[in-house]
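Handout, page 2. Input:
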Amino acid sequence: MLVPNKAIIGKKPRKDGKHVIYFQYCYSSTNRVLLNSEIAVPYDCWNKKRQQVSKSLPIENGNAEDLNTELLRMRKVVERLIELAGHQETINPGQFVKERFGPQLELKELDDPTTIVVKAKELSFFDLIDDYIEYKRKKVVSVAAIKCMRDRLFRYQEHTKDQITFSILDYNFYLGLVDYLTYGYEQRRRKDTIVGLKTGTIGKTIKNFRVFIKDQVRRKLIPPINIDDFKCIDEDCDAVYVSYEEVSRMYYLDLKGDVQLELHRDLFVLGCLTGLRFSDYSTLSFNDLRGNVLYKKTDKMDNWVAIPMRTEALEIFTRVFKDGTPIVSHVVFNRNIKEIAKRAGIIELITFSHKKGNKTIRETKPKYSWIASHTCRRSFCTNEYLAGVDINLIMKISGHRSVRDFFKYIRVDQEQAARKIHEIWKQRSNMSALPVPKSA
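Output:
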């Protein structure tokens, strides 16, 4: 059985004929790291059993007792680092210890919560983001938003030509980043050049950046940083929903045997009838259905939902998933679903606006151009709300945990709101007319 932490001597000699002594940390049955003590002695002067320098060490190579005292001090530092790694929920405890260990590191430095755990070696800003991405990948299905945050920070570094480190994260850095993302960031993979991001998109980037910083501080990978001034600027999101009448037009649309269009149409309609996110309705399996109820553990919120399946949803689910889960590209899906909605005649012009700095940008496009994978979830919530279903019941299916979050998905215009209130008034028989005052 491997000893988690022990001192060993290297097999390869240095140019002077001495062998370096390492601390070997075995953090699993198959993984280990070697920590260089920077102490070297002749191979024959190492006591493997006692894990210390032999008393027979020639005086010209140093004092054996002093070297053993120093090795014992370093060993205690390694043991403390291993203990800290266990408390931090680190992705890789071996890497955690190796990045922080240094022969000059003192035990007292590790017990001071106001300092970085390690001073011997500076950690790379973007390396830590990469570690964080791998850490989150084990907990969530998609890390796309975090990767976008990393890309925007990296391109900001290229823009300023100044290396980003944790020591420069102050209010001036925040202002510079927001200004760059608003007026200087060139969006990729666009047919036409688009410079600058929407206010809401910048807000999401700052939000993910704040979460990353807090995570690193909480796990004591970096010293505490005050990010109270890093405001998550936001604005209401303009987004369309498709009515059940429009969903029906897409459902019965003749796509002339185009297998990919038919698959994407079926998944979109299924999403509109279940309220699931794309990451959920595109990864269903046939075993998720029990009777007429679909049971799914959502990827984003990591909670179970039970969704009653109407006839059309059952028919689509059986057709799509009976032979396994198809592989669907999110990018291709979003492109195809616009084409399908266009063929279904969902072409009314709709104008949305968004903030870019202090300017309001208005854009008018046919409705099908605004449709995307997340339209399904908004459509389900809005259609069921307009149909008079109790909000709490809809939230049980959609998985929303608060009414505030739920209403972000509702897309109701003034005419629909007035109609809904009128229907509610009709149900109140005692409110059909205002009571006549007794004095009248």
